[in-house]
Each structure stands twice: as structure tokens, then as C-alpha cells.
């Protein structure tokens, strides 16, 4: 349902051109949970932005359910994002002038069919699912990092997307907050069939995925699924890392955990 074909992207400044995505091709099926790992600067966030239609590649095809995102204008892309995509940014990107409940409602405000009342009702129920009802009217600067993260996650759920892209959703969180966030994402993936693409540095998060794509210097250097691995330019150290990432995935680890209603502070 999500397919990259020969995708290239570079950033240019006055002195140099940085090739960030170099001939990326892969296909992801509906309902898959895919982790993207790799060193800082390897192109993970760029790939996620391109996959969600937030950014355009220089060349190549990015197809979501058969629609090539690279061929759509901004207005059509905004519609696709509002209807089908949830995105959790690496640095949250909450709007500072809006309180928690209003931030969660943003994707719904972009959908003109809903009334203000309907939007607030939906946002409130999602707020409760991330145990944040007690902070509904707080502004981002009045929230802790973990609380901001939970609001960002709630915002990505509010339009019931069929695919969620999460960029380091558990970075900078303590164990308890990480677990809450992961449980919520896993619940969406396993119970509601939402496709999940998670960029992570955390091996514990990658272990939970059905499949792990490893990036290095703008390329996918390995693709591991259920212990089977396809690799490109594979070095022995990468092989070891990649195999261990998936081979340790047990049925127990993949069990669905319902989102907790407990408030974590
Ligand atoms: N808008 C931009 N202009 C210029 N260079 C950019 C831009 N965005 C990203 N880059 C460069 O592209 C490369 C890949 O960046 P990207 O954010 O995709 O990496 P990443 O794998 O997500 O890293 P991290 O793990 O640190 O988040 C980096 O070298 C970065 O400096
Ligand atoms: Mg990044």
C-alpha cells in the first residue's frame, strides 16, 4: 500500500549538495509495523516526510494506495494527509498558541465536514486515551516533554488514519511514558489494522516491529522480516545487528497491550 520506487532527494545550499535519499525502493503492506533504524543523518526523517507527502523527492515514485504523491498538488496532498495519514514529528511540532485539546483537533479542523462541537468531542475522547484529560486547556509550554509527546501522538490518532508515521516517538521519554506511547501505537496497529512506520534509535522498539529497514548514508542497507533478510552493501557488523533485531522478536513481545488509562506523571 506504500511503495517507493527509485526515490532520490538532495538538499542544496550555496556550497554543497547533500544527497540524502539515494535510490530508495521498498514496498510496505497494509497493517504492517515497520521500524526504520540507522545512524543520525542517514535520512530517516527525510524518508518519513517524503512518505507522508510532506516533502517532495527530486525523482522517483511514492505511491500510497496506488496514488503517486509526487504528482499531487498541495491541496490534494493536504486532503490525503487529513483523511489518511497520522504524523508524529521528531520534535512534536505542537502549535504554541493552541492548548492541548485544540492541538489535537488540528487535523479535524482541516476536514470541513465536522462541526466545532464534533471536533472537540472527538479530541476529548482521544485526549482521554492518552491519559491527558487533566491537561486539556494547557498550552505546550506548560507541558512536560512526555506530556507534549502524548499530545502529539493523540493528534496523529484523531483522524483515524490508515497509516501512522512516527519519528522517534519515544525519544527522551522515561520507561513508563515510552511504554504508554508504544502500547497506544501497538493497539492501533494490531487491533485496528493501522499501518505503522516508526523511526527509532531504540532497539526495544525495533524488536516489536514486523520488519526492520536499516538506513545508512541515504540508502536502505538491510530489510529484515520475520528473521529473513535482504541486504544491500552489507557489512558483517550490519548483518549481525539486523538479524538480532528481528530474531529476538517473540510472540509474547508482539502481544497486544491495551492502552493504559492510568495517569503517568
Ligand atoms: N532542509 C534541509 N536542508 C539541508 N540539509 C538537510 C535538510 N534536512 C535534512 N538535511 C540533511 O539531510 C541529512 C539527513 O537528515 P535526516 O533528518 O533525514 O536524518 P535522520 O536520519 O533523521 O537523523 P536523526 O537520527 O539525527 O534524526 C542530514 O545530513 C541533514 O543535515
Ligand atoms: Mg530524524
TrEMBL record:
Database matches in CDD domains: ABC_MJ0796_LolCDE_FtsE
Biased composition (Low complexity): 235-258
Any one GO molecular function term: transmembrane transporter activity
InterPro entries the record matches: AAA+_ATPase (IPR003593), ABC_transporter-like_ATP-bd (IPR003439), ABC_transpr_LolD-like (IPR015854), MacB-like_ATP-bd (IPR017911), P-loop_NTPase (IPR027417)
Chain intervals for the UniProt region annotation (Disordered): 220-265
Keywords noted in UniProt: ATP-binding, Nucleotide-binding, Transport
GO cellular component, one term: membrane protein complex
Residue ranges occupied by any ABC transporter domain in the UniProt entry: 2-242
Pfam families membership: ABC_tran
Source superkingdom: Bacteria
Family in the record: Belongs to the ABC transporter superfamily. Macrolide exporter (TC 3.A.1.122) family.
Protein name: ABC transporter ATP-binding protein
Species this chain originates from: Leptospira kemamanensis
